[in-house]
């Protein structure tokens, strides 16, 4: 095995669940986190503090945050779109936050009802109020494509990051293919540009969707550019409610299979993960994706 392992962030409990209409019992969500942690996964996006009306599936954020803290080995981040939601997450006991804003104005207005510039100011205010010991990630949505504006230029991403990175240079930065329309050469180009421009950033991550079947190829392109943190959702669950047409995340089991076949450590038990993915695909209202689950387990 190579000495350059990849870190997988399991986002199924947030991104994978958020678009499912029938409410998943909180106890069931925690069971999935416990089982996924037992496979060797350590980093999770466990929930999001957002409007209960906008995303009813995540109305139990407080309980999920509290319960996940009792799961051994789990480092759980909470997605937050505003400084006020960050305060809520911290009040619920969160110790790791992932702030999200979009490159495109149309998507940011649709998602959080403000311009990207207003989100930058809000992010700065949030950082100023953060207590010690809180880990921080910055999720840059529509970094490659916007459902309303189309393909996003690399310079647009760089211009936004020019404003954001000096505010918290130690934050992990994730570039997100919100619509799943990115292609591998574009992913490589954008990551080459940002990694070169911002050498002070210690950790870059990639978040892909598999709408057009290129989620895994885009993960590989990001890896080749130097990215070592990958978001994925078991059973390929997910899809952004605020990005019309976007399908699920790249499947965690697909990511594990690809890297292990390349000789790159994931420290994840693929056989155990497949069994959990089979159950995830059967959640009422879920739309599952991925290929490895079907190839190895014969699951329809």
Automatic annotation (TrEMBL):
One of its GO terms (molecular function) is hydroxymethylglutaryl-CoA lyase activity. Keywords: Lyase, Metal-binding. GO terms for biological process: ketone body biosynthetic process; L-leucine catabolic process. The keyword Zinc does not apply. CDD domains: DRE_TIM_HMGL (cd07938). It comes from the Bacteria. Residues 6-274 form the Pyruvate carboxyltransferase domain. Coiled coil: none annotated. Belongs to the HMG-CoA lyase family. This is Hydroxymethylglutaryl-CoA lyase. It comes from Salipiger aestuarii.
């Amino acid at each position: 095995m190579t000495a350059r392992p990849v870190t997988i962030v399991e986002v199924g409990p947030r991104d994978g669940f958020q678009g499912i209409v029938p409410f998943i019992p909180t106890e069931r969500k925690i069971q999935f986190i416990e089982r996924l942690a037992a496979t060797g996964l350590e980093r999770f996006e466990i929930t999001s503090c957002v409007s209960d009306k906008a995303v009813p599936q995540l109305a139990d954020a407080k309980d999920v945050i509290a319960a996940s803290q009792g799961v051994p080995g789990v480092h759980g981040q909470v997605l937050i779109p505003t400084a006020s939601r960050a305060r809520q997450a911290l009040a619920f006991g969160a110790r790791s936050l992932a702030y999200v804003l979009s490159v495109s104005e149309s998507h940011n207005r649709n998602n959080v009802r403000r311009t990207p510039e207003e989100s930058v100011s809000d992010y700065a205010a949030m950082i100023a109020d953060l207590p010690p010991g809180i880990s921080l990630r910055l999720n840059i949505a529509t970094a490659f494509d916007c459902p309303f504006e189309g393909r996003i230029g690399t310079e647009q991403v760089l211009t936004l990051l020019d404003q954001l990175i000096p505010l918290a240079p130690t934050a992990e930065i994730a570039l997100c293919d919100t619509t799943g329309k990115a292609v591998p050469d574009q992913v490589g180009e954008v990551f080459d540009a940002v990694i070169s421009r911002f050498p002070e950033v210690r950790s870059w991550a990639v978040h892909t969707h598999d709408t057009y079947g290129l989620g895994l190829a885009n993960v590989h392109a990001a890896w080749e550019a130097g990215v070592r943190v990958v978001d994925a959702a078991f059973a390929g669950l997910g899809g952004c409610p605020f990005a019309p047409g976007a399908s699920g995340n790249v499947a965690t089991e697909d990511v594990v299979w690809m890297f292990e076949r390349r000789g790159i450590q994931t420290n994840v038990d693929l056989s155990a993960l497949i069994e959990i993915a089979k159950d995830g695909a059967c959640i009422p209202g879920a739309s599952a994706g991925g290929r490895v689950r079907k190839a190895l387990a014969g699951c329809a």
